[in-house]
Structure formats: structure tokens, C-alpha cells
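Input/output pair, single chain:
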Amino acid sequence: MPKMVGFIKDYFLVFLLGAIFGKVVEMSGIAESIAKTIVNLIGSKNAMLTVVLLGAILTYSGVSLFVVVFAVYPFANQLFRQANIPKRLIPGTIALGAFTFTMDALPGTPQIQNVIPTTFFGTDIYAAPFLGLISAVFVLATGLSYLEWRRRVAARNGDGYATGIELTEAEQQQLKQNLDTTSNGSNARQWLAFVPLILVAVTNKYLSTAIKEWYPNGFDFNAIGLAAYTVDVAKTSAIWAVGLALIVGIIAAISFDFRRVYTGFKDGVNASIGGSLLAVMNAASEYGFGAIIAALPGFAIISHALGNTFTNPLVNGAVTTTVLAGVTGSASGGMSIALSAMADQYNAAILAMGIPPEVMHRIVAMASGGMDTLPHNGAVITLLAVTGLTHKQSYKDIFAITIIKTIAVFVAIAAFTWFGIV
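Output:
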């Protein structure tokens, strides 16, 4: 129970503000404006690239993966229809943009999978930037190559948008119409939609360094008349930076279209709070469960066996995290269990081997987003439900992206081991 409560205390702010930011971005029309801008810039001739970039921009800015699915799908559906690409490839394309490299590989992403390791390894969310960039490029290039290969195979077989699916009456009607991708306002306003997202990134980067400089000896609540309690800023500065950056982003997003947000603000915030509570309780319970597992006598045997099998802590951390993420169907849940049980051992091992904690952070974060997207994963189920497709029709492509993401973890390990890239 103490571990579970400690997890909620540390990360609830990030879950809550992330959910509210995503909802405000949706309600203000920012997501729609960004989508239309990217569609107009790249066009339907590069439908897959357009969808991937749209998902990547939104998730890297801190928008929830679930919000991204709902925001991107209408545009993906129209682009694939215009390009006559099989609809069954949409889930894999959205997954590549939203569930992979911008979730945990790119340095600076405020997604929770990149925030959790900061408190265990004393890092920030920009840990191992070059390693993260190399991995992100690998995932993006390999993923797009795979999807393009699938598109070409479908084209050779004469498969088009509607091949192999039964369209509903509403979808049949949509085929006869064009989704309006024209600008809702001036070009300047369309580009202003990117401002809240940029502010989150810039504020986060600045505060990641500034907070440590402001409070080099920790933050003492006695100074403001509260009970004696000192916060270790070195361990929590990344969380503070992300939280404050998201607050700035929320204010900027509301300012983008205040009237539109105001009309549905109460219901939107209530939904965000409910969603964040569910998410943080789910992850916290798994973290607490990991602490219980670590206390069991049998765990020492398993831990010893894993240590003998995978003597390199990077490989050990990658395998353990991605397996647990696959079992739980949750990236944050699998990572929480792994770090709850093994973080002390990993820190001791990387210290002994001279491995920077930033590298361990990046490897564990990326591994959590590997095998988590198995069929029972909540994001996968939501993605298929939103697109109106089944596991039989589309999961093969999602799984292929999952394999590519998992391989990228070991590409990163090799890049550090052979070339010392951090």
C-alpha cells in the first residue's frame, strides 16, 4: 500500500494535467486545426506519412494517446479513401504515429512512459537524446517502409479502401462526400494552433534545468509556513517541469478559442478527471503489486536467474520491462512493476559497469512501449473500436509495428554498447 500511495503522490499531477490538456486541445479545435494544416501541406498522395506525422505531433506535445486516436481517425479515414488505400491499414498507421517513437523514444516527450523513470534514475525527460533520436528514426523509417510495402501488395492484388470490410450506411454516405479539410479561419490562426504545443515543449525544456538551479538543496516547506517536509528536487524536478509546462499549455489552448472551450469546459474537465483517476489507479495498483512481488521469497530466485541469463542490465531491463508490459497490456503498468521490483538492482549494476543512468532511463522507457500493444491492450481495443475494424482485419499490422518498436530497443542498446552513443 505505501508503494501504491507513493506512486499516486508522485505521478497523479502528470496524469491529471495530461488528461485535461488533451481534452482542452480537442475542445478548442486545436487538434482539428493542426490536422487540417498537415493534410493541406502534405496531401492525400502521402496519406500514410500524413497520418503518422499528425499522430506524432499530437502525442509528442502531451496529448493523450486515446484523444489522438479520436482526433486523427476522421482525417485518416478520408485520406485513405481518397488514395484508395485499404481501410484495414489505418489502425497500424495510427499506431505508428501515436503509440511508438513519440511515446517514449523521442527526448522530451511528456508522455507518462517517459516521466516515470525520472524518479528512479534521477534523470529528466530529455535523457539520452541521441540514443532516443536514433531509435525514433529507426522506428519511423522501418514502420513507414513496412506500411508502404503492405500498401503496394494490396494495390497489386487490386485491394482498395473498401476491400474486405462491410461499410455501414453512414460510411457509405461518407464515401460520396468529402471531409472538409479547408481552413476554419485565416492561415495565421491555423498556425497559431501549434503555439500551445510549442509552449509545452519549450517550458518543459527550460524548467527541467531551471528548477534544479532554483532549489539546489531541495525545497523546504518550512520556508512557506507549512509542516517540516523537504522535497528531493533532484528526483522530482522532471515531474514539476512537465506539470508546469502542461499548465502553460492548458492556458494557451483555452486562449485559442475561449468561447468554444467555455461551453463544454465543465463536462470536459470532469471527463478528464475521471479518466486520469482510472489511469493513475491502474498504474499505481500495478506498481504496488510489483512491490509485493519483490518482497516474496521466490522473487529472489527469479531475479537471480534473470541476472545470470541477462548479465547486461540494459538487456535485463529491456526484456523484463517489455515482458511485463505485454503481460499487463500496459506500458506504464509493466514499467511500474519492473522498476518497483528491480530499480535498486539496476542502479547498482549500471554504477558498477559505468553505464549512465540516462541510458537506462531511455532503454526501460522504450521497452515499456514494445510488447505492451498485444491484443488485450486498452489502446489497441480502443483504436479498433474507433475505426470500426476487428483484430482479424487489422491487428497483424499493429503487431508488426509492435515488433519493430521492440527491435528498436535492442538497436539502441547496440548503439550505446558499440559506439558509446548517449
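Residues 175-179 have pLDDT under 50 and may be disordered. The chain has 20 helices and two strands.
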